[in-house]
Amino acid sequence: MTTVTLTRSGEFRAPFWNRVWSVMLWSLVWLFVLNVMAVVASVAVDSFGTRWFGTWLPEAFTTKWYFSAWDEFQLDDVLIVTVKVVASVVLISVLLGVPAAYALARREFAGKRTVLLLLVLPVLVPTITYGVPLATLLYRVDLGGTLAGVICANLVPTVPFVVLVMTPFIEQIDQRLESAARVCGAGTWGVFRYVLVPLLAPGIMAASLLVLVRSIGMFELTFLTAGPDSQTLVVSLYAAAFSAGIRANQSLDALAVVYMVSSLFWLIIALRFVNPVQLVARVKD
Amino acid sequence: MSSLVASGGAVAGSKPGWRASLGWDGTTLLVLPAVLFVLAFFVFPCIYGLILSFMPLKGETFDNYIRFFSENRFYSTIWKTLLIALPATLANVFLALPIAFALRKTSKYQRVVTAILVVPITLGTVLVAQGLLGYLGPNGWFMRFLMTIHVIDEPFRMTHNYIGVLLSLIITGFPFSFLLTLSYVTGIDPMLAKAAATLGASPWTQFKQIYLPLLAPGLAMGFCLAFVQSFAVFPSAVLLGEPAGTTRVMALAVYQLAYEDYNAPMAAAGAMVMGAVQLIVVACVLGLRGMFYRGPVGGTKG
Hints:
Chain A has eleven helices and two strands; from the N terminus they run ββααααααααααα. Chain A is an all-alpha fold. Chain A folds into two domains: 58 residues, no CATH class; 213 residues, Orthogonal Bundle (MetI-like fold).
């Protein structure tokens, strides 16, 4: 058993093995981070390179692949579809999820456990299990391959996600604030507008940014339900990578970089608003 | 609203105020839109898929399932998927745990390191697959580096096989596992560990005696959520693996049945088997969790 000694300044001095452990741990973290960075960098460098074979870096740098990728993959159409899908998914999942989270946080009612189970299941069942029958159904009612179908399919995991993230958030808002507003004569709309919306705004912001990042990257469900006119960025990226060899690898990498930048942009905004640590439980200092 | 019902008492066969006694009022109605949505777009497709799987294109009721478990190209996908998804999930959870534990105290590093480790969540399976193909490929930086420092003489194969898929699942799954584990670790009252420290417990003892038992439910949940993700993913198995060989995962087999063979009932049967395997794994993990401590993790949190 290791002993902990108290130094004169009152700090605990870590024994030898603890320091070895932390050095090992942080080297592992750095190894992981560096390798991931190298993976990303090799895509980015290739997308700006002319010819790259058997050397450390490409022979010369160019931006022509971005222009050719833009034309080849009809990126303007794909980006418009992606924006439409992602914006609708975020909006609808917040509109459906936040009221449900409010009810679950504020009331005890018969059937609450059933409702919770119902909302947890879509998160615990693999996407393909419900995605394939859902796509079959959507094609039956002529929604398959349309924008509406893609949006519906993407909402299945995101609505429960918003509910599960928002419920603990609403629970921590003091209910007496609402009562106080009512005592002061506010109606339901007044309570909603002047008490709930300002207090809920950070939570809704956090949840919708996370939904946004998630639905940009949601591959399986979009892939199963999308038609030629309703492909999002991630699906056309897969389609391009799947038929690699037909196109120059660099324009494929250019597409991948466009995808990464558009996703990263939103995550960085999200990280400014949300401390990721507080996602599930709140920190007590 | 409930008072209106109570004074009217018009609902046949029920006492006045029965809704109030169940706790239903105007606010509870707010769950309805979300519940109806999940019923329509999740529960209904699942039931539809289940019924469809018992109506094969030709043959008897159970023929789809009999075919799934008798043809090697179908039933072998179960082991192949588990062989990829389980190690990837275990690696993620056990990588995330010590890092999250080291970051448990709020500091300026906590936020920066967390942000750096979470960023790969934006990469997505397709980008990681494409990146790994370049980075680990025979002319990629990884092989060149190993050859420069003379660890290896010839590039060896890390893509288009099992290793490539496993690595890509670890990279894409790690941020999520880490985020979950970190929020569980920081949710545990640090006073508990401080109390142990005053009694002379080393960080390792604190971890083993206090954090691990309290974390067990969170770890089990994190394992399940991470497992779902790596279980259903197939782009990396196609792009980085051998889609005809060792990395023919269940999701791919189901997809091919639905969109290449146009055999919707058989695809539904495959999807149902997939869901069943997933739920069995979840049940096992949650059963293991039941052997640990249950109770509040807050201590003084109230």
